[in-house]
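Q: Focus on the shape:
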Amino acid sequence: MPIRSRKLQLVVLGLVAFVTSFGAHVVAVNLPVYAQQVGAGAFVIGLLIAVYDFAELGAKPVFGFVADRRGTKATMLVGIAVFSIASLSFLILPPRLLLVVRLLQGLGAAALSITSAALVADYFAEGRARAFGIYNAIKGAGYVLSPVLGGAIVWASSFSMIFVACFVVGAVAFILCLGLPRASQDSGLDDDDAFSFKVFLDAVRDRALLPWYAIIVVNMFLVGILFGFLPVYVYSLGYNQLRNGLIVASATTSYLLVQPVAGMLADRFDAMKVMGAGLVLSSVGVLLVPFTTGLTLVMACVVGGIGVGTVWTNSDAMVSQLAKRGRTASALGIAGSFKELGDMLGPLLIGALTQAFGLKVSFATCGVIGLSSIVFLGIAAGKRVDVEGAESL
């Protein structure tokens, strides 16, 4: 049955995005159980987490180009199928081949995440930022629910059953997506240019998008710090794991809940001012973390979560809006790779700074780096005016 309701279309696309967030974390949080079963060490756990991200980092731009040439919906369905089949393959492959399974899951996730975002941009030319806010909130639910559901599944059955859960989630998303309409901008690239290296370079070097790529890197840099290194600081305070989890949850929950609101505000008011407020809040939140404890620490985490959530949603909307016609998925694919890059750089830098100078200096330094991204926002605002002026001529 074709899905004609715009609200239902958005929910379905959000569920597609939920597949990748759920698939990434439901496995990652239970890897210690797997490591104990096969006798693997901490390095293998880190490798199994990283390979999923590395697959997305390299594959997102490729699938973006494929989607623009071969069809966004078709590419999304292929991505969901690859993810789902790869998940189920763990049941028949030797457990030590989990690295291969995670790589294939990551490739499928790269395709489905970029194409679902591109379809949001295509279906919702009006109210795009608000649509991205709802879409990202549904996607973000995967980060919140997967540790709880994954732990319950492993506790009740076995580690392998979480891959059955991944398959079921993917299969449901695949079936629901069959009723979605095709993108209006499909086949925007001609045959000669579809996969040329020049097209890729043009998308990477697009002057209107470059400052947005920089903003995305900085925001994900702060996300990686806030969600990845915050537990290190909380642990240093001597808090137990329950308290640690609750404090981290304050950041992730605020990040999740603010996105629809941030999108709505960007649609209704000046998107640049909303983005600027988000960058300031995320940077200040990270900067304040090592100088707070207890309730004030929770408040700093909430401020940081609101900031990164605001920038996350509206940067997607701006990239899709500024992308050249027929190349929305390509631009979002490249932006997705920059997200993965920032997500990796944040923990690496703050880890090195902490080793050398301690937690206070490292968090404060990274917060200042975040504030410097206001410069990129100013450049982006100028480029946006140039693009809008050229379109009006």
In short: DSSP finds 16 helices and no strands in the chain. The domain at 201-392 is CATH 1.20.1250.20 (Growth Hormone; Chain: A;).
